[in-house]
């Protein structure tokens, strides 16, 4: 069988010392002139043929490639018509001096800044033997059998017309009613079903609120440290985040009062990431600030169900008599992040504006998922499941705290006890955050840096890490903490 490929190497053409190898495949369906054209074009774009360089003559290149002169001439004419080369009398063909060559190069070959570390998202995807990431949840907790049963029930009972219609604007009415009863019973919230907006994740809900308040607000006060995803959403929607420090009761109200901001995002029931619970006195003062300044408070109640030594604290919205609070709740921590199910409670004065802006929007959660969740709550599965989850999480929390105190003792300070699904460890042995995180990963343990939650990083002590325990069992917790001790406490001088 005849060898189909002929290779011409750099330097074989006297007229040009810059031409890289050109590969001709005689068995390809692609015409020969196209093969030559494409390879020379790529060399010009990649600047392997420098700007202003003289190309080989048609006669010389055709002889070296063993193709007809017409083939080479056709390739050159195509390059010339596209502006990559030009013909100059007495000089032959010259590569054109093009600017912004990067725009013509494939994205995969454009030089990108070197990254010194993986992104947080890439780190999450890696498999670690001990996963203390705050987003990790145990897959064994999800009630798969019950959920499948309810899906079948809902499909059997559903009107076929529901599958040929667009979703409602705010959510399925029967799910809204179930949420009203649940929020009133557990969070003290008094609202009407019309105030419930079903949404597909906090990111989507917060994005709607950004549009809702855009005409009146260009800035938003956020806790510092605080939830960086919320900060990014505000930034992406054109808002300027104004960092407000924390004190022992949560967001620093004196600092807040010193700004001109009239929109604030807070996590009062379990501040993220530090775990502070805002006391009732400060909640009242925050509401008074909002009323006095005609401001809006966005209350993110992301994991309020998980209180271990007391009942869940009533929501900030529950003591709001002047409709100043937008409440955001979620099923991501308590049920499943994969379902992308959350909701918000809008103050009544905002409903007309919401309908005006989003009259053409439809709830992004499917009809059947809303029906299944409604039945899950209505038939009592949700309450039983939640009690089980809280009991399990409380045991893990207490076990984690006890294990840390036993093995690490006075070498760490624990922030955020008695609630949520994560804690923050502050080390007092001189190690900095990067060392803490990298040494842990060296032991196949995933813990999270805290610096990402700070806007004003110069105020951060740079000696903390975040440990989530939603996906850990007791055996994994013990083994993981023992290894952390050896890496972060015993091995600080290594």
What report would you give on this structure?
- With 494 residues, this protein is of the alpha/beta class.
- The protein folds into 3 domains: 5-108, Winged helix-like DNA-binding domain superfamily/Winged helix DNA-binding domain (Arc Repressor Mutant, subunit A); 120-139 and 386-489, Alpha-Beta Complex (Aspartate Aminotransferase, domain 1), CATH 3.90.1150; 143-379, 3-Layer(aba) Sandwich (Aspartate Aminotransferase, domain 2), CATH 3.40.640.10.
- The chain contains 15 helices and 18 strands.
- The chain has helices at residues 32-45, 58-65, 69-81, 120-125, 144-157, 173-187, 202-213, 228-236, 253-257, 280-293, 351-357, 367-378, 381-408, 433-442, 474-489, and strands at residues 5-8, 22-25, 85-88, 92-95, 130-131, 196-199, 219-224, 240-247, 250-251, 263-266, 296-300, 325-330, 342-345, 412-415, 422-427, 445-446, 448-449, 464-468.
- The strands form 5 sheets. An 8-stranded mixed sheet has the order 6-13-12-11-10-7-8-9.
- β8 (240-247) and β9 (250-251) form a beta hairpin.
- α14 crosses α15.
- The longest helix is centred in the C-terminal third of the chain and has 28 residues, at 381-408.
- The chain is extended and about 90 Å long.
- The model is unreliable at 1-17 and 109-118 (pLDDT under 50).
Low-confidence stretches: 1-17, 109-118
- Just give the CATH class of the largest domain: Alpha Beta
Strand residue content = 15-25%
By helix and strand content, what is the structural category?
Answer: alpha/beta
Oligomer: single chain
């Amino acid at each position: 069988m005849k060898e189909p490929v002929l290779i011409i190497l750099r330097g074989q053409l006297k007229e040009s010392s810059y031409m890289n190898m050109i590969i001709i495949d005689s068995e390809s369906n692609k015409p020969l002139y196209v093969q030559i054209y494409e390879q020379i074009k790529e060399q010009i774009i990649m600047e392997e043929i420098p700007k202003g360089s003289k190309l080989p003559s048609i006669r010389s290149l055709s002889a070296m490639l063993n193709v007809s002169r017409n083939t080479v001439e056709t390739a050159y004419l195509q390059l010339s018509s596209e502006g990559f080369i030009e013909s100059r009398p007495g000089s032959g063909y010259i590569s054109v001096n093009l600017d912004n060559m990067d725009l013509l190069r494939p994205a995969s070959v454009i030089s990108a800044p070197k990254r010194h570390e993986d992104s947080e998202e890439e780190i999450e995807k890696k498999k670690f033997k001990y996963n203390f990431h705050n987003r990790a949840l145990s897959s064994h907790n999800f009630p798969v059998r019950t959920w499948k049963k309810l899906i079948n029930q809902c499909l059997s009972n559903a009107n076929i017309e529901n599958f040929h219609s667009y979703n409602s604007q705010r959510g399925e009415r029967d799910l809204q009613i179930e949420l009203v009863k649940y929020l009133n019973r557990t969070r003290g919230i008094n609202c009407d079903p019309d105030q419930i907006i079903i949404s597909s994740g906090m990111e989507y809900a917060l994005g709607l609120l950004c549009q809702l308040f855009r005409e009146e607000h260009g800035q938003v006060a956020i806790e510092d440290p605080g939830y960086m995803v919320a900060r990014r959403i505000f930034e992406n929607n054109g808002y300027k985040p104004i960092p407000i420090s924390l004190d022992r009761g949560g967001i620093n109200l004196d600092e807040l009062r010193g700004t001109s901001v009239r929109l604030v995002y807070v996590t009062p029931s379990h501040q993220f990431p530090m775990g502070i619970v805002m006391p009732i006195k400060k909640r009242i003062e925050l509401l008074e600030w909002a009323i006095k300044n005609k401001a809006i408070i966005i209350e993110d109640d992301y994991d309020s169900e998980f209180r271990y030594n007391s009942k869940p604290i009533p929501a900030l919205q529950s003591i709001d008599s002047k409709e100043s609070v937008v409440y955001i709740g979620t099923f991501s921590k308590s049920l499943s992040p994969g379902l992308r199910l959350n909701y918000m409670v809008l103050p009544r004065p905002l409903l007309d504006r919401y309908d005006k802006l989003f009259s053409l929007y439809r709830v992004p959660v499917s009809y059947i998922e809303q029906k299944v969740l409604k039945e899950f709550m209505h038939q009592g599965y949700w309450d039983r499941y939640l009690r089980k989850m809280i009991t399990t999480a409380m045991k893990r929390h207490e076990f984690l705290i006890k294990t840390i105190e036993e093995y690490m003792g006075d070498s760490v300070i624990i922030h955020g006890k008695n609630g949520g699904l994560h804690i923050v460890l502050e080390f007092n042995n001189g190690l900095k955050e990067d060392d803490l995180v990298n040494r842990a990963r060296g032991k196949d343990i995933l813990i999270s840096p805290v610096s990402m939650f700070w806007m004003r990083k110069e105020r951060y002590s740079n000696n903390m890490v975040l440990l989530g325990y939603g996906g850990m069992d007791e055996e994994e917790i013990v083994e993981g903490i023992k290894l952390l001790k050896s890496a972060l406490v015993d091995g600080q001088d290594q």
